[in-house]
Amino acid sequence: MRSAYSDFGKKFLKQTGIGQLMDDLGNPPPGSCMLGGGNPALIPEVAAVWNEIVSKQIDSGAMEKILGSYESPAGIIELRERLASIFSEESGSEISPAQIAVTNGSQNAFFFLLNFFSGRFSDGSKKKILFPILPEYIGYTDQTLEENSFLSFGPDIRETGDRSYKYFIAKEKLDSYPDWKREAGCICVSRPTNPTGNVITDEELSFLISKSAEADIPLLVDNAYGFPFPGVVFKAASLIHKPGMIQGFSLSKLGLPGARTGFILGDVETISMLQRANSVINLTNANLGQFIALELFRSELWKNLCRDVIRPFYERKSLFARETIFLKWNSSIDYRIHESEGAFFLWIWVKNLSLPVSELYPILKEAGAIIVPGKTFFPGADSNWSHREECFRLSFVREDKEIEEGIVRIGSVLEKFSK
Q1: Is the Cβ–Cβ distance between 16 and 138 less than 8 Å?
Q2: What does the pLDDT average to over 401-419?
């Protein structure tokens, strides 16, 4: 039967990115400390807001319309108007509803976008997605329809403390490889970055904006954890939007991953293409997330929720996880933690291991600690680059007791395999 599958079908038989991760996370050994997932935490104050909004919709009889009708593939117009107003205010740029598409999650939207700007073009050329800094989000790895669709550049790695470091865009690498302008169909970056928690600086973002304009290609920015919502950024930063940028936003990290609702801000032509693609693939968007978002943005509850509840919660969790590692891990483990500037994860680099992290993964799993090996976050990287096998992602959204126990278990395994 498998020989009857198309090349597109067969790619899902051998996927190694987010599909494999989701399989593993769905079937952990009993008693495991689940420090590998991307779910947001269940924050009581946030859950109370969703309960209030949904209860209000049920009491008003709105659920009949929400669950019993199709909305436009473009998304509810009032929601797009509200988003245009928010993005205009936050960025200082004038945004219209025609520049916004609603999608069934930003993962869904980036599948479309990455394939819009990579692959075969009418002039016979083949274009790739340029990642100006690695590591990057695991969810990009399996999304392109064409094989070999990534052009990537390793980072400038700078140690910032005894046990800390940070990735920066290695600008000289782009400058020393001028063919990227011919090969790239778009530039893509996430901010903050999943998996590292890195927030590229405003100056680095300006550099990418200028480079994309220079090559006349779009700059895709994934704001799943960023501004203006959920705002899980622990340093001074803001929403920046310039011509040529296409940006993704999501309700998932705001606390609604099950609603599968995302938003794309971009130029009118790309947004129109996205809406048409959505009507073909999905017919329309899921209603529940849109109506929850509409009430959230209409009431402006989101501002206090992000600033006073969500951001402080994750900043505290990040600090707790880092302090637990400092306290619990043996000094024989030669590790560094990437500067935690946002998102839900710590990115840990362990030097001088006798086994690569991908081979330690099943040992850690057997020990009851689920993490995500680093090599899956390096699309297009040289497979011989040892750094890929020295890093892993650790989620800090779980209960403190589970985080602490998981860190202890990880430390015990790393200690055994430290040279």
Answers
A1: no
A2: 96
* Distance between CA atoms of residues 100 and 145, nearest Å: 25
Best CA proximity match to 338, nearest among 297, 377, 366: 377
Contacts of 140 (CB under 8 A, 6+ apart): 17, 110, 114, 129, 131, 150, 188, 379
Show me where the domains of the chain are located: 14-45+305-417, 49-301
Backbone angles phi, psi at 127, to 5 degrees: -110, 155
Copy the structure tokens of residue 344: 């839900």
∠ CA 362-366-368, nearest 5°, is 115
Q: What is the dihedral of CA 27, 32, 35, 39, to 10 degrees?
A: 50
Residues 302, 318: contact at Cβ < 8 Å?
Answer: no
Domain 14-45+305-417: which topology?
Aspartate Aminotransferase, domain 1 (3.90.1150)
Q: Convert the pLDDT of each residue in 169-215 to its tens digit.
A: 999 999 999 999 999 999 999 999 999 999 999 999 999 999 999 99
124: left (phi > 0), else alpha (psi -120 to 50), else beta?
left
Distance between alpha carbon 115 and the CA centroid of its chain, in Å? 17
CATH hierarchy code of domain 49-301: 3.40.640.10
Contact 240, 91 (CB under 8 A): yes
C-alpha–C-alpha distance, residues 269 and 276, integer Å: 11
Q: How confident is the model at residue 248 (pLDDT cuts 50, 70, 90)?
A: very high
Tokens of 104: 């069934």
Identify the H or E element spanning 386.
none
Structure-token pair, residue 33: 């400390």
Q: What values do phi and psi take at 396, rounded to 5?
A: -115, 25
Count each helix (H run) and each strand (E run) in the chain, helices first.
Answer: 15, 16
| pLDDT the model gives residue 343 | 97
Q: Distances from the Cα of 357 to the Cαs of 237, 240, 350, in angstroms?
A: 33, 36, 9
At 230, phi and psi to the nearest 5?
-80, -5
